[in-house]
Amino acid sequence: ATDAATRTIAVAHGDGIGPEIMDAVLHVLRHVAPNLQLQPVTMGEAAYRSGHMNGILPQTWDILAEHPVLLKSPMTTPQGGGYKSINVTLRKTLGLFANVRPCVAYHPYVDSLHPGMDVVIVRENEEDTYGGIEHRQTDEVVQCLKLITRPGCERIVRYAFEYALAHRRRKVTCMSKDNIMKMTDGLFHRVFDEIAAEYPQLEAEHRIIDIGAARMAARPREFDVVVTPNLYGDILSDIAAEVAGSIGLAPSANIGLHGAMFEAVHGSAPDIAGKNIANPSGLLLASVQMLLHLGDTAAATAIHNAWLRTLEDGLHTRDLFNERTSRRCLGTREFAHAVIE
Ligand code: NAD
């Protein structure tokens, strides 16, 4: 076994459909990477219920300090004041500065509005209005701080260019609203132009986020790698995942200097929880990203190929099922079995 294969990863089962899709994914992982050690951690509703307002038990931090690679199912954020988002807390505490979201059309095996689409969104993950720094100024005026730093811009933009090189991509597009937010987005765009000059082998362009997002919905094949500040990246990656085929297929890698977290793009889907009908593909592809991050290319390739073959065979979960491309409609557990077969 390689070092990667014997690594211990932290595993959070999540809320809603979280436990079902995690069980399915771990079932596949146990077949392909049997020496990978799994350390369960508690976060989500159970932690909120026991009075931890950030949704994470204190002992979870100790485990993450020792095993800073986390495979995480979606969590339900309780409504109402006082509760903090687990994801925002994890990203800031573990310094997960890059959020990498591939959005790929699997046409003709999965219906897509845009066959041939293959876009990777690299979203800045710690700064911007998403930091949740909000103030009440008066009873009628509230304020949210949009924080953008030069080191933060440099780190994410360089990550996007290095990612493009490593994955043999041809172009990096920066999206911002620097025509209006001249200082904050202006800095992001300026840093992009500076760093782009160091990568003459890659095409570089800038688009204003509003028309850029419209183009992503209508003509996504114009894009390859996209780098953008936090909030725009959040919205743009959901659009891109949905027009590629289904948000249920999209994975998300959160990469930091000292740790990494891998999850599906979608949420905890309480409307279909406990019914064995959720699609585990987003989390399964996140586990592929995780294995690549750990350096276990063989296991990552094995899972990715088996998953593609399962889709090609027309074995689909309910969200992807249609009479033209599907042969059988499988439950969450049965889909995982088909991938293993
Ligand atoms: P959602 O992504 O959970 O669900 C949106 C729709 O997509 C629902 O109809 C759902 O049934 C469907 N869907 C989602 N994933 C699916 C899958 N794997 N297979 C089949 N269908 C799937 O979004 P929401 O309803 O806005 O949010 C529900 C909860 O999830 C909220 O509490 C939200 O805060 C939380 N959330 C968590 C994360 C995370 O932990 N990373 C991300 C987004 C939302």
From TrEMBL:
One example of a Gene Ontology biological process annotation: isocitrate metabolic process
Residue ranges of domain Isopropylmalate dehydrogenase-like in the record: 8-339
EC number assigned by the record: 1.1.1.42
Keyword tRNA processing among UniProt keywords: no
Cofactor dependence: Mg(2+); Mn(2+)
Molecular-function GO term, any one: isocitrate dehydrogenase (NAD+) activity
Catalysed conversion reaction: D-threo-isocitrate + NADP(+) = 2-oxoglutarate + CO2 + NADPH
Keywords noted in UniProt: Glyoxylate bypass, Magnesium, Manganese, Metal-binding, NADP, Oxidoreductase, Tricarboxylic acid cycle
Function: Catalyzes the oxidative decarboxylation of isocitrate to 2-oxoglutarate and carbon dioxide with the concomitant reduction of NADP(+).
Family membership: Belongs to the isocitrate and isopropylmalate dehydrogenases family.
Subunit structure, interactors included: Homodimer.
The protein's name in its UniProt record: Isocitrate dehydrogenase [NADP]
Taxonomic source organism: Thermomonas haemolytica
Origin organism lineage: Bacteria, Pseudomonadati, Pseudomonadota, Gammaproteobacteria, Lysobacterales
Full protein stretch here: 11 to 351 of 497
